[in-house]
């Protein structure tokens, strides 16, 4: 592989990471304190993540590179996200994952604090998967500032995530993990939408969840290249990047 081709791959990856930040902000998934990362496609032992900045204003110049242990590559003195260890621990524990989000979408927060399942009730939300567990930092770490700010905490959370695409954090938010940036955006947006739909449904009657088979087959379809490309184009346009 030529140096020029490798540079093109990295440039495209960083561009898409910036756009993913803007998309998730535009879709009211990631607020001023959430974040999204992507594994380095040329070096799986590293990942890209913005410096500590609100996703809606992230630019190419904000992107930093880290080892899976959260160590910064290079001499950038700007402050990184304290919770970067969420990303590194998941990448370390899950070789199949290449993109991660951590967010506090308000519609999902009530489900971090009660026993109502966030299992999909809508076919477009099948991508979140059938198993969604909740990680409680109290179990291992007691009273903290509730940030996942160490590799020990990151691996604890990653263990609860297991092989799933989503895990909730009690009283905090959630993490979403997927094969690529387009897929993790779809999972993150679908999780937010599914939470609101469950809330709305409970106002008028009982819930009816999708079956395991429906979730498996529908998510496989939605996460295939054509639906992902179509959804990505839509989100890109809504974020103000139409035509790039």
TrEMBL record:
<dbReference type="Pfam" id="PF00596">
    <property type="entry name" value="Aldolase_II"/>
</dbReference>
<dbReference type="InterPro" id="IPR001303">
    <property type="entry name" value="Aldolase_II/adducin_N"/>
</dbReference>
<dbReference type="GO" id="GO:0016832">
    <property type="term" value="F:aldehyde-lyase activity"/>
</dbReference>
<dbReference type="GO" id="GO:0046872">
    <property type="term" value="F:metal ion binding"/>
</dbReference>
<keyword id="KW-0479">Metal-binding</keyword>
<dbReference type="InterPro" id="IPR050197">
    <property type="entry name" value="Aldolase_class_II_sugar_metab"/>
</dbReference>
<dbReference type="InterPro" id="IPR036409">
    <property type="entry name" value="Aldolase_II/adducin_N_sf"/>
</dbReference>
<dbReference type="GO" id="GO:0005829">
    <property type="term" value="C:cytosol"/>
</dbReference>
<feature type="domain" description="Class II aldolase/adducin N-terminal">
    <location>
        <begin position="15"/>
        <end position="199"/>
    </location>
</feature>
<keyword id="KW-0456">Lyase</keyword>
<protein>
    <submittedName>
        <fullName>Class II aldolase/adducin family protein</fullName>
    </submittedName>
</protein>
<dbReference type="GO" id="GO:0019323">
    <property type="term" value="P:pentose catabolic process"/>
</dbReference>
